[in-house]
Design a protein that fits this description.
Blueprint lengths: L8 E3 L5 E5 L15 H23 L3 E3 L13 E5 L9
Antiparallel strand pairs: 1-2, 2-4, 3-4
Length: 92
Amino acid sequence: MCSGPTWPAGRSSDDPVHIVVVPKLHIPSLVDMGEGGDDLLMEALRVVRGVAASVREKHRAACVVTNEGAYQESKHMHWRVLFRGSLPDALA
């Protein structure tokens, strides 16, 4: 698991692997970075990239998701790194 002083990574349970990366500083969304700015966005992507690399190394695949607007249930930017389960034969 990859985390940093401003980016803890936690787990959820909908998929076989479902890791949620959330900033400690309140950032409304990817589109509205609030006071976070581009430096925080780059820090976020470094952490998400590290988590995705770990998932991909173990499971050969990873999905990275963030929601915006009406899709965003929690009005606090977060990223989900998933492994959704068995890969289709064409991708395995």
